[in-house]
Design brief:
The chain has about 240 residues and is an alpha/beta fold. It is built from nine helices and twelve strands. It is elongated. The N terminus is likely disordered. One of its GO terms (molecular function) is phosphorelay response regulator activity.
Length: about 240
């Protein structure tokens, strides 16, 4: 990741938005914050520009010509270069839960629904850049035989690599940074994804269910990912093995 200079010197931000007036408005607000901003107007150009210049962050409209934003995200995340882990904030007029889950599972770091205030987008950019820098400088978290490595973006159990989606990793890394602390579903949405969303609490429940299937020896009696009734979830600060 290439984030060390971002907050002090401004970031290199790529904006992919087919509405030219909206793109120009975003550019002006971001440049006012000190960011170097490049604008493109279709998905194919977004992929090419991201691969050519490796931006520090991509503001990506979902509905675009040639290649839509979801496919842009899918292509970049499947790559091997620096562009594969570029932080992505998606912009969309879609607001259904399925669209939200799909965008996050493809690896989007945040999700803003149109219409929105450009100042809110600037705030989201600031938050995502700060969080990405923290991940780049982060330590490996260990609880029992579970390891979460924010730099390598890997989860291991008993030394075995566990395949998780980008959204699942963000939730797990958030919990692992404060083992034993109980998080509400809303806090997990805000901490893991950086946006304020109150409608889709069950988004966290779905991801937690999938994580338990991948990590827990007995998903119905979890040793790592604990439910805190009336609150939300926490990662156990220690795991006691059954001696039998």
């Amino acid at each position: 990741m290439k984030i060390g200079h971002c907050e002090a010197m401004g970031a290199r931000i790529l904006v992919a938005e087919d509405d030219r007036k909206q793109a120009e408005l975003i550019r002006r607000y971001l440049e006012r914050e000190g960011h170097l901003t490049v604008v493109v107007h279709d998905g194919r150009a977004a992929i090419d520009e991201a691969r050519r210049r490796s931006p520090d962050l991509l503001v990506l409209d979902v509905m675009m010509p040639k290649v839509d934003g979801l496919d842009v995200c899918r292509v970049l995340r499947a790559g091997q270069g620096d562009d594969a882990d570029v932080p992505i904030i998606m912009l969309t007029a879609r607001s259904t839960e399925d669209d939200l889950l799909l965008g996050l599972d493809l690896g989007a770091d945040d999700y803003l629904t149109k219409p929105y205030n450009p100042r809110e987008l600037v705030a989201r950019v600031r938050t995502v850049l700060r969080r990405t820098r923290s991940r780049a400088e982060g330590e490996v978290y260990r609880v029992g035989d579970l390891e979460i490595d924010p730099v390598r973006h890997e989860v291991r159990l008993d030394g075995r690599l566990v395949e998780v989606t980008p959204a699942e990793f963000k939730i797990l890394a958030c919990l692992a940074a404060s083992p034993g602390r109980a998080f509400t579903r809303q806090q997990l949405l805000e901490h893991a994804f950086g946006f304020d969303h109150y409608v889709f609490d069950r988004t966290i429940d779905v991801h937690m269910m999938n994580l338990r299937k991948k990590i827990e020896p007995a998903p119905t009696a979890p040793a790592y990912l604990k439910t805190v009734y009336g609150v939300g979830y926490k990662l156990a600060d220690k795991v006691v093995r059954d001696a039998s």
